[in-house]
């Protein structure tokens, strides 16, 4: 049999076709009532199954036409519908002469049973072959029923649409709420293809303080002249062309004048032809992140600076050491020669000039060594207030009468362990700088106090470590300095002073001393506003030793004791031997520790003093003393060095109680020191 299907829905159609063909019938189909009617008219089928809601001609009209057509009216007609499901619809269907009214969806086997039944009824001629009994009614009545049915359907559809619209509105409101409220860091916008904003979300007010309307009009005025902002125009142009790009950053001035960084991401929106309709954008306030980046960069520069100082220090230390030895030789021989000539002699003045120049150079190398932390020091536990107080008179003379010196000692300050001579040097160097910065009348202040560095402070300051410190601050109300000067301040030979006025070693020396004592130094300065240097020295647990009274300068006196001189630098060995012999001593010399040991073993007389370099080949001076004490229990020792880089005196710090003389030394220095050591018990 041939069965005609009128159905616009693909799924239903396929299912019906399957059912029909599986029953051994043939299926033809039309996508709407009109098409199906034409097929029926062209070749009448044995059964019609029709949907009701279809475009162009619905199922009711299709049925009416079929039942009105004398050629077709006998064909059984089944409605199969998902939309018209009310009993009035069913009534209309049977009034039109339909045999069955099936509601979608139905199981294939149910459909099969119905089709079978209808065909069987038809063959037994039990079905109404003409228009159904109801169709006998007045045509007007059917049309009323039809209109009512469609009207009801329409009503229902409108209600449905209204519900959908409500839902859409609710979801849009939700989206709006999301976009426009509680957005502390974001705001959204869209602009047209000319770059003109057509929407900015109100949350912009939370981010930048502007109302959307304000921003819309004056937007370009808020862009700062940051070079990065040039990107904005290029970016907008590309977005308008439909190119999606990575986010860009822009700096904008907020209403309150504060500067903010925004990260902006734009998305071009397209119509179905691929044309850009508008651009959607989202701006994210990344000021905090930017700030953190800047902070990180700052810390990185500080670190590089510290590393640079370290490298320069090593270099300077190496040069200064060799140079120092040579100066010692120059100074020593010049002094010896000076001792041989009478003051009236033509060579006398020349020799004196050599001595002066050598001493000045020795001062320079000493500062370099201090910077390189290669200066030998003898730290003592001291009360900083006491040390500073002892220096005030000297500092006053250094800075002159025009500068008022204020001394503000902190109460109950902790003790520190440092060579007091180094504190003197720090104060002297800082005072000279203050004097130069003030250049006239002004004020200099020295303060001390206790400070504790917490974790927060250390996180912000590279190289600072947690703990308790004693602060030594030196301030002046002088010319101050700019950032550039501050960045180079501690570098050796950095000076802004004219030729012959500055060596550029003052602050590098201070820096080296502070570092050698594991301390920290900070500078605060503004051009025209003066300068403050803050030095932090680690607190020492324990009380301060009382300071020995500075003795009078002793005259150079010699003696007749026997001295063992050990020095690997032959020029210095010879020179020192000559100075000592000149002073009346008996001198035994050795250039290595082994040689010294052999000499002592073979020597039958008494040896009173060992004068030795700290750093020697094979064995250091301190170890040599220990061995020699086996032979001469009363042997005294005096060490000399330009610097030391060895194990015992790592970082150049000797134990308190070790006698030490800094190279290069004058004849006078050596004479005094040797006598002092020999005379003490
Ligand atoms: P010098 O004093 O020989 O120039 P320093 O190492 O002592 O070398 O100082 C380096 C530079 O730091 C100075 O030339 C000066 O520009 C600057 N400076 C140091 N201290 C101060 C200060 N208290 N006020 C202003 N500038 C200073
Ligand atoms: Mg200086």
Account of the protein in words:
- The chain is built from 20 helices and 22 strands.
- By secondary structure, it is of the alpha/beta class.
- Strands 11, 12, 13, 14, 15, 16 and 17 form a 7-stranded mixed sheet that branches. The chain has a 5-stranded parallel sheet with strand order 2-1-3-4-5, with helices on both faces. Strands 7-6-10-9-8 form a 5-stranded antiparallel sheet, sandwiched between helices.
- Strand 16 (520-526) and strand 17 (530-540) form a beta hairpin.
- Helix 11 crosses helix 16, helix 13 (420-438) packs antiparallel against helix 16 and helix 18 (593-602) runs parallel beside helix 19.
- It starts with a strand and ends with a helix.
- It binds adenosine-5'-diphosphate and magnesium ion.
- The site of magnesium ion has 5 residues, from helix 13.
């Amino acid at each position: 049999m041939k069965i005609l299907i009128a159905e616009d829905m693909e799924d239903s159609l396929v299912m019906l076709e399957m059912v029909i063909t599986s029953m051994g019938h043939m299926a033809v189909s039309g996508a709407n009532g009109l098409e199906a009617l034409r097929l029926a008219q062209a070749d009448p089928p044995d059964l019609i199954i029709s949907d009701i809601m279809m475009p162009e001609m619905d199922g009711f009209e299709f049925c009416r036409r079929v039942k009105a057509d004398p050629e077709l009216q006998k064909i059984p007609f089944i409605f199969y519908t998902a939309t018209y499901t009310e009993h009035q619809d069913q009534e209309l269907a049977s009034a039109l002469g339909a045999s069955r009214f099936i509601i979608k969806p139905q199981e294939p086997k149910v459909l099969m049973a119905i089709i079978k039944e209808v065909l069987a009824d038809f063959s037994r001629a039990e079905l109404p072959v003409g228009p159904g009994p109801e169709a006998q009614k007045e045509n007007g009545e059917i049309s009323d029923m039809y209109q009512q049915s469609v009207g009801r359907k329409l009503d229902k559809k409108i209600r449905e649409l209204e519900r959908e619209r409500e839902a859409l509105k609710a979801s849009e409101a939700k989206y709006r709420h999301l976009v426009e409220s509680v957005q502390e860091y974001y705001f959204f916008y869209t602009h047209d293809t000319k770059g003109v904003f057509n929407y900015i979300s109100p949350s912009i007010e939370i981010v930048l303080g502007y109302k959307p309307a304000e921003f819309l009009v004056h937007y370009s005025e808020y862009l700062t002249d940051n070079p990065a902002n040039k990107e904005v125009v290029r970016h907008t142009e590309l977005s308008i062309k439909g190119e999606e790009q990575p986010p860009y950053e822009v700096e904008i001035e907020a209403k309150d004048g504060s500067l903010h960084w925004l990260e902006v991401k734009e998305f071009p929106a397209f119509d179905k032809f691929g044309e850009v309709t508008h651009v959607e954008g989202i701006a994210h306030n990344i000021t905090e992140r930017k700030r953190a980046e800047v902070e990180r960069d700052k810390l990185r520069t500080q670190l590089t600076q510290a590393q640079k100082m370290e490298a320069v220090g090593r270099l300077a230390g190496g040069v200064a050491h060799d140079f120092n030895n040579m100066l010692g030789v120059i100074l020593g021989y010049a002094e010896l020669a000076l001792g041989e000539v009478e003051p009236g002699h033509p060579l006398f003045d020349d020799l004196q000039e050599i001595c002066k120049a050598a001493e000045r150079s020795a001062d320079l190398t000493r500062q370099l060594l201090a910077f390189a932390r290669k200066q030998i020091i003898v730290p003592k536990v001291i009360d900083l207030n006491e040390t500073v107080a002892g220096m005030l008179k000297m500092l006053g003379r250094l800075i002159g009468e025009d500068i008022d010196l204020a001394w503000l000692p902190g109460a109950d300050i902790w003790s520190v362990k440092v060579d007091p001579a180094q504190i003197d040097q720090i104060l002297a160097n800082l005072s000279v700088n203050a004097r130069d910065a003030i250049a006239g009348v002004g004020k200099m202040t020295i303060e001390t106090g206790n400070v504790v560095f917490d974790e927060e402070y250390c996180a912000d300051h590279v190289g600072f470590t947690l703990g308790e410190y004693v602060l030594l601050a030196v301030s002046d109300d002088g010319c101050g300095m700019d950032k550039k000067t501050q960045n180079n301040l501690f570098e050796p030979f950095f000076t802004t002073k004219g030729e012959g006025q500055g060596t550029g070693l003052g602050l590098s020396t201070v820096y080296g001393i502070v570092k050698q004592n594991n301390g920290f130094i900070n500078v605060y300065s503004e051009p025209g506003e003066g300068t403050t240097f803050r030095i932090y020295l680690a607190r020492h647990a324990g009380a301060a030793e009382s300071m020995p009274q500075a003795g009078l300068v002793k005259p150079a006196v010699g003696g007749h004791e026997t001295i063992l001189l050990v020095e690997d630098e032959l020029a210095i060995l010879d020179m020192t031997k000559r100075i000592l012999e000149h002073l009346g001593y008996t001198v035994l010399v050795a250039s290595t520790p082994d040689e010294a040991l052999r000499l002592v073993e073979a020597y039958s007389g008494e040896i009173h003093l060992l004068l030795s370099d700290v750093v020697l080949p094979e064995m250091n001076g301190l170890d040599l003393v220990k061995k020699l004490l086996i032979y001469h229990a009363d042997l005294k020792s005096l060490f000399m060095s330009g610097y030391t880089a060895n194990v015992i005196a790592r970082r150049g710090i000797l134990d308190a109680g070790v006698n030490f003389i800094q190279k290069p030394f004058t004849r006078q220095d050596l004479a005094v020191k040797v006598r002092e050591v020999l005379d003490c018990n």
